[in-house]
Amino acid sequence: MKVLCVSLLLLLLTLHAVEGSTFLDDIFLPDFDDQNWDDDHEAEAEHWEEDDEVFEFFPTLGSEHSGRTVVNVDGFGAVGDGIADDTQAFLNAWDKACSTAKSVLLVPERRKYLVNATRFKGPCAERLIIQISGTIIAPDEPNSWDPKNPRVWLYFTKLQGVSFQGGGTLDGSGSKWWSSSCKKNKANPCRSAPTAFTIDSSSAVRVKNLNFKDSQQIHFTIARSNAVRVTAVRIAAPGDSPNTDGIHITDSTNVVVENSKIGTGDDCISIVNGTSNLKMKKIYCGPGHGISIGSLGQGNSTAMVTKVVLDTATLQETTNGVRIKTWQGGSGFVRGVRFENVKMIDVANPIIIDQFYCDSPSSCQNQTSAVKISQVMYRNISGTSKTPKAMKFACSDSVPCSNIVLSNINLETENGKAETFCNCANGFNYGTVQPAADCLSSDKNSRCETAIVNVNRGPRFHGYSLLLLSG
């Protein structure tokens, strides 16, 4: 019966070769519908396009233009020379703009505003626009940072129907934070650092055409929010700047990130617990650690990530490509994930699942529980790998990965033959798959529950050893 079922599946794959995308989506992503997602949430953001048209005449916008009230931070005492502290002027301007319907909080172009750690709180009157055309810079000295806000710089919470735009820059002045990091120098104490820009507990928010640079740690976090669209943002930090993730998404639903260029010292996009219905499209990543789901499960925690799509991306000279990373001892699941139409250019680990992730100064303890990874599809992925093992599926021995699908994969190395590594990974491939992934086979699962893993050296399987990756 088992042989018959496998044969039938292969026959169906052959018959549906042209429409293989839809066929496999139905099998492995049965409750994810791109079209329904768009229809369901279009109404929540229907005003975004209107506002784009309204502000095409900036910076000459008058106070009565299109019936909007412009609240200029300069009118509340902001100096804009990059030296004077403009924090209170920004807070006063925020209070006015937030309480005024159809208002614009304006940060004028060709000026630099020094702003300390600040929390901008809603709810606000309807259809607020934050027009950042100039540059907002953070204080550069870690020792003088506001102790009441150790983890945030510009923090926005409880917003609905708000748009951020304007082509300006948020500069985190992070160089001194990086040099004092324990990842730069092990003699330094490990301590937290601020996230530059946070949207928290908000809905129907649009972020468009902004620049982020040199954050203290994470550049942009979306937390506990619904229906957030991020378009045409540019994020830049040196490739050796520690923990400077580009966009970090946590506990949020119905998020779109599109048409954006990200280069940092950590993950270009990191996706962690509580994220569902995330669509990423037309992303350029590099330098950085790739586009990652995780890390998940640290400290025996439970994590759930579902319905994640990356469609059309280029990753160049990153330490990882598309990655799922989990700690031993966690629980929960990652499922309903699709990485497709991705170009890899000299990427160290183009496709990787690492369930033995251990970003710790000491070795991690062997544990049997793990986050369950299933229903993950890799489709139309090509390019060059810096390492021989272009695909690595290092799955948990006790909670194997299941329903891993490869379709139309073409990864090569400049010198030598590319390889695929598997540990307790169950799935199949169709179409062209290079390097071959015959190790995605269900007949090896019987060995996984009793396999012994040396965490200090990495999981071993059929003579291979996978080095643990940091970052």
Automatic annotation (TrEMBL):
Write down the PROSITE patterns for this protein, in alphabetical order.
Answer: POLYGALACTURONASE (PS00502)
The positions making up the signal sequence are 1-20
Compartments (UniProt record) = Secreted, Cell wall
Pfam families per the UniProt record, alphabetical: Glyco_hydro_28 (PF00295)
GO BP terms, alphabetized: carbohydrate metabolic process; cell wall organization
Record's catalysed reaction(s)? (1,4-alpha-D-galacturonosyl)n+m + H2O = (1,4-alpha-D-galacturonosyl)n + (1,4-alpha-D-galacturonosyl)m
The record's keywords, sorted A to Z, are:
Cell wall, Cell wall biogenesis/degradation, Glycosidase, Hydrolase, Repeat, Secreted, Signal
Q: Name one GO molecular function term.
A: polygalacturonase activity
Name where it mostly resides: secreted
Q: Which residues form the active site?
A: 289
Say which domain of life the source belongs to.
Eukaryota
> EC number(s) on record?
3.2.1.15
Identify which top EC class this enzyme belongs to: hydrolase
Q: Which family would the database say this protein is a member of? A: Belongs to the glycosyl hydrolase 28 family.
Which named protein is this? endo-polygalacturonase
* Species per Swiss-Prot/TrEMBL record: Aristolochia fimbriata (White veined hardy Dutchman's pipe vine)
